[in-house]
Amino acid sequence: MRDSNYLIPWDPDELEVYSTEVLVLGSGVAGLFAAINLCSRFNTTILTKKNIMAGNTEHAQGGIAVALNQDDSPEFHFGDTIKAGAGLCNLEAVRILAEKGPECVELLIKLGAKFDKQENRLDFTREAAHSKNRVLHAKDETGGEIERTLVAKVYECGISVQENHFVIDLLKDKENKVCGVIVFNENKSELEIWLAKVVILATGGLGQLYKYTTNPPVTTGDGLAAAYRAGAELMDMEFIQFHPTALLLPGAPSFLISEAARGEGARLLNSKGERFMRDIPGQELAPRDVVARAIWAEMKNGPVYLDISCIGRDKVKERFPGIYKTCLAYGVDISTTPVPVGPATHFLMGGIKVNIDGETNLANLYACGECACNGVHGANRLASNSLLDGLVFASIVAEKIKSNQAELTMPKKEDIDLSLSKKIPSQENSCLDKERVKEDLKEIMWDKVGIIRNRSGLLQAEAQLTDYWREFFPGLDTSELELGNMLILSRLIVKSALAREESRGGHYRSDFPLTNKKWQKHSVIKRGDTHVSYIYL
Ligand code: SIN
Questions:
Q1: Is residue 116 within 8 Å of residue 76, measured between CB atoms?
Q2: N or C: which end of the chain has fewer CB within 10 A?
Q3: 79 C-alpha to ligand 1 centroid (Å)
């Protein structure tokens, strides 16, 4: 594999240098909440790839799981999360999530987030694999409500937000400590250096590696790839969650049809109008991986539909206005008609390996939110745990950084280890059609590294992706930089999926269809390693 610290060449003498004490990369729930928790102690800057609202948080529909209902407790939430995680959850992380969740959500409510109520009390709905009604919601735009609340607070706090700043790579000093980033400022079409005492990666997931995804266009895994190039360890990259129900119509995007719809009683029907989940334990509210595979199998016989109309016309419009409006725009009135659905890539359970405090293996580099992996989701995330994960672990990262404050020093440009830049590959002219490569990559990932995998498909994927990687050299263009990151990450997912010879949670191998206790361990991969290694948490 062509192997370098940096995706593209750069010359420090030609670049403008900016400084801030804390640099937060990403503007979803985790990045915003980390910045809010740090800004009273540190000069804090958020760099975000597009506009502040462009990430996954804004698209989260169903809700935020939290043990605040009268008949619920963190103990029940802990138990459900562990069960969904298929034997691979980090118990300490899950305990923290369940126990610290209520105070973080209460703070969010104090900041102004408005969740739906019944008779003046918070209304909790049920989602798959929850034993209690535990999911707070703001109709079907819960992520939007949370994002707007946090964005307002960020501006109220005077935190500097730099939009259209694509972080390409991390910079390290001569002691191998992270000291900043190289950024492509799209507003000026220029590269810049940003120096900081600490860098927090909160750059989200990588749904765009797949042909069908519920994730918005920005989710190309740039933070994960930059961390990998800098020498950070990535963990559990084979565990991708496929959401069972995305809109499936020619010409329409894979728009999420929230699990909350099934929580409220919507039913899955096959092409004969039969309820094919009826005999499966948990029925429509079985764990996500189970429902996704059942739909996938059923789609071989014809289209699959979600009938939401059975909950009542008025309730559909009242409870799911966003889904109703979007489906109507594509010609389906979900208040009267079943909507065609299929699975789509939704969430990365793996990510940049962090400890409970969000520390990576690189000094001064922290990660939280979807790009980070402390094992809290195991092999399969419980529905609506991701927004909570973002809040809880961002606040923990902030606490950790505050407790280290005395040891942090402000780097200078001269501190950057320039010897690393000598390893940058020369930019060879490539006749690859970059847009076609991007489309091919997404097809390959969907067909061979998707819901059902096997050795021969994974080997084919590895060979095709490696060929592309050898020939591809990105230029200073966002789409090409993204493709460079996508080629690196897709190969890491393939490598991790090939190595895990069992099925568990989001990773299903038709040639190893059973879960095997001997694989109850986490995969770890780092630049320069020839093999995936494993750890027990
Ligand atoms: C949904 O609304 O179905 C998605 C919620 C989640 O990803 O947990």
A1: no
A2: N
A3: 19
